[in-house]
Amino acid sequence: MEIYFRILKSGCKVEELQLEKLERLEPTLALYMIIAWRVLYLTLLGRECSEMPCDVVFAEKEWEAIYIVAKRKPPPE
């Protein structure tokens, strides 16, 4: 549980958002909580099953986009 909130606080930088109205805070927080849960899930899955291919948890377009951002070159075929 502590790791989840650390991801939410540090990784998603929720505290830096400083949203002033509840109408903006609730949907934003809900979205970031889902993102933090997925990051935690993928982190734990990566530790347990490090040889698993990425297309098990990501769609083709998702992992290609991540590859381009991380490596700054087109994804392999």
Could you explain how this protein is built, in words?
- It is a single chain.
- With 77 residues, the protein is mostly helical.
- The protein has one domain (2-71).
- Helix content is 64%, strand content 0%.
- The protein is built from three helices and no strands.
- The protein has helices spanning 2-11, 22-48, 60-71.
- Helix 1 (2-11) packs across helix 2.
- The chain is globular, with a radius of gyration of 15 Å.
- The model has no long low-confidence stretch (mean pLDDT 85).
- The average pLDDT value, as a whole number, equals 85
- The percent range for helix content is 55-70%
Q: Count of helical segments?
A: 3
Shape: globular
- Overall number of structural domains: 1
Largest sheet, in brief, is: none
Q: Gap between N and C termini, in Å?
A: 38 Å
- Note the run of SSEs as H and E: HHH
Cα Rg = 15 Å
Q: How many strand segments?
A: 0
Structural class from helices and strands?
A: mainly alpha
Classify the beta-strand content into a percent band. under 5%
Q: Which regions are unreliable across 5 or more consecutive residues at pLDDT < 50?
A: none
